[in-house]
Amino acid sequence: MTDNAMETCCKKELEEMGFFRIEIEAAKGFLAVLRSYLDSLCSNLRSHTITNVQSNDDKVSLLLKESFIDSFPSRDRPFMKLFVDTQLFSVHTDLVLSFIQKE
């Protein structure tokens, strides 16, 4: 299923559940801002990963969390220490690392 087909399908389902177009657009806007914020937080993620290439050319990348946290100003580190343990961060970094591994 293409992204457009999936979006159309989801819009229909949301509208059937009583969501209005304006609410759907507001949610999409919020998610775009959230993704942009996550991308900015993780912009230097590659500098804090190690990649192991297996004998069958599979790559495994690991995030060095402490190094990543230490790259932020000291005033931001308490937040980052908690944030790196969230599911949101894990899912986002897994996606970013999977792109790094394909390079």
From TrEMBL:
It comes from the Eukaryota. Residues 65-90 form the dDENN domain. Pfam families: dDENN. This is dDENN domain-containing protein. It comes from Tetracentron sinense.
